[in-house]
Amino acid sequence: GTGLRIGEALALQWRDVKLTGPTPTVAVVATLVDIKGEGTVRQKQPKTNAGERTIVIPRFTVEALESIRPASPEPDMPVFPSRISKDERVPRTPQTTHNVRRTLRMALELANMKGQVHPHLRRKTVATFVARERGAGDAATLLGHRINTGVTGKHYI
User: Fold this and answer.
1) Residue 129 burial by Cβ neighbours in a 10 Å radius (0-12, 13-18, 19+)
2) Under a CB-based contact definition with an 8 Å cutoff, are residues 1 and 57 in contact?
3) How many CB atoms lie within 10 A of CB 148?
4) pTM (two decimals)
5) What is the per-residue DSSP string for 23-92?
6) Residue 37 carries which DSSP code?
7) What does the alpha-carbon distance between residue 39 and residue 104 come to, in Å, rounded to a whole number?
8) Phi and psi at residue 141, to the nearest 5°
9) SS3 for 112?
10) Do residues 106 and 122 lie in contact, with contact meaning Cβ atoms separated by under 8 Å?
11) Residues 27-57: tens digit of each pLDDT
């Protein structure tokens, strides 16, 4: 329901998510990156300058996030954390993009849908829907692209 890049979605912390009030939002302020020797880390800025944005989220996304939100989440807790460590004192880290892609591939193989769906496809689907409803400029803004560069229309819509 957001069109976020997979790294942006996995970098979300509960402080970035506002589910109450008249306009529920998600603030995109970071992304996950792989750094040789360090592994996957949360980079405190999105992929591009235009990538920092606040997105109004639809009701079905609010409901999905409410269903996974802990009773009292810490502000810096990842929205999509990795597995819980046996040592509860160890802070939870975000899932990695590699693991999410692998899990999706395994689920699709079990459903006999191998190769038909990938994380970027949902981003393209959101862009196409928004472009049809509101125009290519709004789709570009939602995706974190600069308006009028042609990237959104050429590669997403």
Assistant:
1) middle
2) yes
3) 11
4) 0.82
5) S-EEEE--EEEEETTTEEEEESS-SSGGG-EEEE--HHHHHHHHHH--SS--TTSBSSB-PPPSSTTSPP
6) T
7) 21
8) -60, -45
9) coil
10) no
11) 999 999 988 988 888 988 888 777 888 999 9
